[in-house]
Amino acid sequence: MSTLAVELDGVTVAYRERRVLHDVTLSVRAGERVALIGPNGAGKSTLLAAATGLLRPTDGTVRLTGDPVDGLDRLEVARRLAVVPGVANLPFATRVEEVVALGRLPHEDPFRGARPADRAAVAAAIERVGVGHLLGRDARELSLGERQLVLIALAVAQAAPVLVLDEPTVHLDLRHQVGAMELLVDLNERDGTTILAVLHDLALAAHFFPRLVLIDRGRIVADGAAADVLSADRIRDVFGVDPSFVRLPEGVAG
After folding, report:
1. What is the pLDDT of residues 78-132, one digit of tens each?
2. What are the helix and strand counts (H, E) for the chain?
3. Which of 174, 173, 210, 212 is nearest to 44 (CA)?
């Protein structure tokens, strides 16, 4: 297994004539915890889509745990990488436990179905994320925040070495935002899971992630610790706001 979990080398992505990512090079080492930050429309979600193989770059190469992602079938990608989308639509009635169990599909025997180990992984994920009180409910009837937690539980059950999340806290209240961040830290530090997440909340990113990658207009403009990336001048230039309005951990935006 490569020591690099996710690699983008000279990646450019264009929609028709409009470039969304411009020659992006980014490496995430196995076991890292990295947050992608930047204003709306900067290209963060596009970068995630390219990194997970959902979007083919116009130019450049994407590798997942050492192999070109476009050479892997979807089942192999799912064994290596779990994705928590920002928004998920469920087209038909599905109980919460059935949604979480989808995370085990990449590991199930195609002829025998779920094994005791798969059922144990689902139960453990439900307990770890704290969604046991939702069991039996139709996932379509949950609040957006509850549904987001169920999707995180699905990804935990998947037990892939890389976990990618697009705005995992956007629908959560403050308590559950912090709980979700603490869960990501635990998955990273205790299980060794590589975490790559898009976050809009700069305070959460700065507090819970050792490495921030700042994207603006389709380019990486800063990459490093929060104190280096989120300088007052950069907050002003990239986000267009007075840094005094951005509440960050002490000592970050000097």
Report:
1. 999 999 988 777 778 899 999 999 999 998 877 777 888 999 999 999 999 999 9
2. 9, 10
3. 212
- Report residue 173 as tokens: 């209240």
Q: How far apart are alpha carbons 209 and 232 in whole angstroms?
A: 19
- Reading the block at residue 246, the tokens are 């951005």
- Residue 44: which of 178, 202, 219 has the closest Cα? 219
> Which pLDDT belongs to residue 251?
62
Give per-residue pLDDT as tens, 156-207.
999 999 999 999 998 899 999 999 999 999 999 999 999 999 999 999 999 9
- What is the distance between the alpha carbons of residues 159 and 120, in angstroms, rounded to a whole number? 12
CA nearest 185: which of 128, 115, 118, 107?
Answer: 128
Q: At what angle do helices 174-191 and 144-158 cross, to 10 degrees?
A: 10
Q: Which two tokens stand for residue 43?
A: 């290209």
